[in-house]
Amino acid sequence: MAQRAPIESYVAVTPAPDLGADVYTNERSLSSQKGRGTVFGGLLMSQAISAASATVPQDFYVYTSSSSFLRPVTQDKVVYRVERLTEGRNYVTRQVRAAQGGADGSGKNLVYVATISFQSKRIPSGKVLDYAAPPPVMGNVVPDDISEHAHRRFYENYQSGSLQAFKPEDEPFDWRPARHTAARDPTEYRATGFSRSRPLSDHSTAVNLAALAYMSDELLLGIAIFANPEVVGPQSRNVAMAASLNHHIWFHDPNVRVDEWMVVERWTSCGADGRTLIHQRILDLKSGRLVMTCTQEALIRLKSASKL
To answer: How many domains does the chain have?
Structure first.
């Protein structure tokens, strides 16, 4: 049997029938963000998708997920309660509520909520619209041209206080940054690169899409930081607080393989009232097919409004 990749254990949940029907908990201990006591949001999103996926037929796959982060999450057990909102022939919807605390470990404090929708693979592929914007221009750069340590060196330049490279001890994804297009206007900043997981032992659609959700949140909040270097200062020293508020994903290809190279493009379009809006699209490197679109709203507060 093939060795299990780290990402497979990160996204996994286990049934908790003693807490009720359609209730799940994280399979392994949660990993906190480096330098902080809170847990990486991608863990919650991916595990919520795994929990919801366990309540639908195997020929259904997640096509959208809308998440709200309500409270900081600690390394304690998380309880995921799945509510079956709709049961259709081709579409079903689930709501997942994640909670922690309680003397009996049943979870009394709501920390996260997600609405997750699924589509049947039985829907005919013909007589539908099929198009997508072209991939970003990468030139002749391929993943092997970039050092596997390049991403760590790049992000270390921005590590300070509230902003860290939020990674579990065993990094589940191999990131290769290809291009960072800086501009005076933050909305013109673009970050492109490549990513893939270690080889999976389970190639099911549910595992691949839950893993893709995890990947979509890795260092995404940092895009608004990178796009404003004069304001955030060296090593983000002017950042007082940074936290994700909500995260919305649209999955476009149930056949995606996260252990094969993907192209990632990220940018930010708006910063106002203490919130920033960040965008992302992920494509399969070989085919150029769009596999995910994502937006995230983040809370970023500065120590000073002046440029450093």
So the answer is: 1
